[in-house]
Amino acid sequence: MAEDEVKQELIVSKQVISVPQRFATGPVMGYFLQELRDNARIMANRCPECGRHQVPPREVCAVCRLEADQWDEVGPEGVIRHYDIVYYASPDPLTGETREVPYVLAWIKLDGTSGDAYFWHMLKENDPSKIRKGLRVRAVFNENRVGAPSDIRHFEIIEAQESGGEQ
Amino acid sequence: MSAREEHAFVVEGKMALPYQYFAGTVGSTFLVALRDEQKILGIRCDTCNKVFIPPRATCERCFSDLTDKWVELPGTGIVTGFTVVRYEEPYQPKKPPFVLALIRLDGADTPFVHLLESGDPAELQIGLKVKAVFAEKRIGSLLDISHFAPVP
Predict the structure, then answer these.
(1) Taking the CB of the first residue and of the last residue of chain A, which one, N or C, has fewer CB atoms within 10 A?
(2) Mean pLDDT split into 10-residue runs, chain A, 167 residues
(3) What is the reported pTM?
(4) Max intra-chain CA distance, chain B
(5) Judged by CB atoms within 8 Å, which residues 73-102 of B form the interface with A?
(6) Which residues of A are less than 8 Å from B93 in CB distance?
(7) DSSP readout, A9-62?
(8) Do B124 and B115 meet the contact criterion of CB atoms below 8 Å apart?
């Protein structure tokens, strides 16, 4: 029947709906974001009971359920704990533009944190095959900071690894 | 923890939701007729003796295939229900207040939703006779009908 089919124009409607939103930081996340913005410092809060850090911070220690009101500066260097290489070209929610792939997301154990506080962020590395667990990385801050997690542009791998020997 | 409140602030943001709507063969025939000929097409089920708009490929009552049962409808009809939208959202087709009405075109058995511009919404009544006003610039969308307006 294919030769009998009439060629028809098929309509596809493409749109980008933009939904504005407002995020109220509260005092704890607000302090974290203020320090990122004003001083380019990564602050973790610490539980007075068990001593574990949380970064980004939470009001309450997730284990002890106590108000975690002690602050420590951590990073800006750390170690890759694990990572994802993302090949799916999802849209950036802020712009609707499709992200370039592959990009790398890493869970980073920042220097000075105790417990299981892993900080999640973008890792800049053009060759994903170079990335491995245990590499040292450093936060790169934007010049113009607005008080958002993206004030850290990304983490980058610190060169001159002496361990070597990896394949 | 003195002056904790000093640390709280509000982050303005936005979320973009890209999407694609595929009108399909039946929907595309309907939209192309709106765009190129300013014609409103319904689709008839001969078994049920009903005319549906917007058109669909399958009768919702008897599941007959309706793919080629096109009927041209006039641009006139009556309001069978309406609501006044008073809140503002960025995705809406126009600034509130505006009226969304269920309009049953003459010759159709189902109403469909469209914008109605009739002056003061407080004076709006079910049963009002209306007609379609086409947009100057038509792109193959339901808004190629700009709105419906009362028949004087």
Answers:
(1) C
(2) 70 83 89 94 93 92 90 92 89 75 92 90 86 92 90 87 45
(3) 0.61
(4) 77
(5) 90-91
(6) none
(7) ---EEEEEEEEEEEEE-HHHHHHHHHHHHHH--EEEEE-TTT--EESS--SB-T
(8) no
